Protein: Synaptotagmin XII
Organism: Hucho hucho
Amino acid sequence: SLVVANNHRRASASTNLSRKPSLQLVDTPDGLRDLGHLELMSRDLMDPAGGVVPFNRSMSTDSLSSISSIGNNFGHDYTVGQLEVTLEYEARPGPGPGVLHIALHQGKDLLEKEEGDFPGCFIRVTLVPEELNVGVTRVQRNAFTVMFDERFSIALDPSCLEENSLRFAAFGIDAEERNISAGLAELKLSDLDLSIRPFNAWLYLQDVNKAVDAVGEILLSLSYLPTAERLTVVVAKAKNLVWTNDKTTADPFVKVYLLQDGKKISKKKTSMKRDDTNPIFNEAMIFSVPAVVLQELSLRITVAEGTDDGRGENVGHVIIGPEASGMGITHWNQMLATLRKPVSMWHPLRRT
């Protein structure tokens, strides 16, 4: 599988932001707010007063020693292709703004699972939340293997590295030259340590049109501390949970499984919240994981309803790891690219 590589490859061609693409883009939406974008939201871990929400630490620690590969049977429901990008921040002397350079290298399997025929595609890069257009690539005629080799630059104050995100949105162009929104990915700049080093990664574009089948969303934070060989999973909160069997009320809790070779080797769970479709947990799960086996593991996070027997009835789940799909592998890769620093992300929950 493709993992984050902290390399320094530069785009082979520089792109003028005013270049006109080969097809008209007049139908491209100016904003993508209505697409229900997927967020990297560490700010959601703050309380309303601006302070950091305290976490409840799991008391037990599980050790792991053996090495094997991960295999799971979960599909790629939300992924509509991959996009390789490099971000680099160039600080300027004095108090003025620096320059953020964004290089789009290549794409794979773009729009592969979309219905209909798209003879062309392009990528739009936007700075959010301002919805500032950073650049639009040339239209590519082969959406399955695309060499973009395009570079955009934008003046950006250092403080914006803590506040802004970049959105990469893929659009297909059908036979009638209409632009159809297909998938997107967002990178929260504060998660990337751009003031220290460039960031290079494969982004997994999410099919926002299919994510409506989710049974809720969950906000998770991941971090790995190499020196202590400690993997920390913070279950922050969930929202818009859909109960099983048309229930009108239920008591949710979250189970976190560490998987190896598709088998559950460790399990932790949060406390239960009473009758809440938008529960706040803020509980940290600590796993002892040697660095040599980190890439051989995955996490399964399941939201469940409390039952009389204590086992719980599963509402939905998400898989996170090097062989997961969509948001699962994107989150894992960003954790590896920013070791020691927590990275938080919303995940759609799929029916178990």
